[in-house]
Task: structure prediction
Amino acid sequence: MKLTTVTNVSVDGVMQGLGGADEDRRGGFERGGWALPLFDDEAAAFVNQVYQRADAFLFGRRTYEIFAGYWGLMTDSSNPIASALNSRPKYVASTTLTEPQWADTTVLSADLAAAIGELKAKPAGELQVHGSGDLVRWLLENQLVDEITLLTYPVVVGQGTRLFPDTGPDTALELLDSHSTPKGVTTQVYRPTGRPRYATATPD
Result:
């Protein structure tokens, strides 16, 4: 399966608390809900399509619990996101979650790289990672990501957890697709292509 990460970020790279004021207040974060006022019909259509093409989902524990407490309780089968999440396999990278309540959930608590490698070795399909910042950073560091989808919102949040750390591995990206919605949400799809090339100093 192809492993795809799907992340909503602000222009300054913040991914924390995008959905609501009280979604994630870790670290004293006070600017939650920054994405919803900009989430227009075109952005919604794009996200719906992304979820529909998933064959399975992989989460970090915190994002899993947020999703389980919202989408997992939604019985409206006509909702494309809820129907995808509630009908397809879900995997959680966690060493502390022991009794997941959301149906069709498997906890990956031992050798995570090996477990994800086994999922990726399946002949077809797409394994999607939504949110789950710590997990995404680990996946990128371990070169397990096949495709990166970013939804970038035209706002500078100014505080909060960012997708990429201040220091970390460097990665070259190939742009596969790009689009902008009426409210300025840009969607970019990238393929990691190894380490970047850097310019060398030229003699005077």
